Amino acid sequence: MNALQFLRTTMVGGLFLLVPLTVIGMIALQIVRFMRPITAYLAEALGMTHGVRVLEVLALLVLCLLAGLLMRLGRVGHVSNWLERNILSLLPGYEYIRMRMNELLSPGG
Fold first, then answer.
1. Quick one: 30 exposed, middle or buried, by C-beta within 10 A (0-12, 13-18, 19+)?
2. How big, in percent rounded to 5, are the helix, strand and coil portions of the chain?
3. How many structural domains does the chain have?
4. Per-residue pLDDT for the chain (109 aa), expressed as one digit of tens each?
5. Which domain holds residue 55?
6. Three-class SS state of 102
């Protein structure tokens, strides 16, 4: 493999990793922006003056937990499988990231 081919394949591999991560990050930021008024209200109700960002991250984690619990339900799981097969699999690098996440989250990982 010559240097130009190595450089090209390495850059394409980097794109396959960065594009899905960027999309996921952008979605997470939009969710946090949507939840900001709610978390600001909660912070005010709890008398918090600092740590509102921590509350936003915790709310995002709770939302992820609830989404994960919904995924375990029958119909929602079927919708998730359909989305993964028909839409998410078209995203560059999605299969690679999914495989890596499964490895990291498996009991032996």
1. exposed
2. 85, 0, 15
3. 1
4. 688 888 888 887 777 778 778 888 888 889 888 888 888 888 888 888 787 888 888 888 898 888 888 777 766 777 777 877 887 777 777 788 778 877 777 776 5
5. 3-105
6. helix
Region label for 55, one of left (φ > 0), alpha (ψ between -120 and 50) or beta (otherwise): alpha
Which residues, including other chains, have CB under 8 Å from residue 68's CB and lie 6 or more apart? none
Collect all residues with Cβ–Cβ distance below 8 Å to 32 and sequence separation of at least 6: 56, 57, 60
Residue 98 corresponds to which amino acid?
Answer: R
**Tokens 């490895």 — which residue?**
103
Q: How many CA atoms lie within 13 A of 97 on its CB side?
A: 20
Cα distance between residue 66 and residue 71, in whole Å: 9
Q: Which two tokens mark 60? A: 């995002």
Question: Does this model's pTM top 0.90?
Answer: no
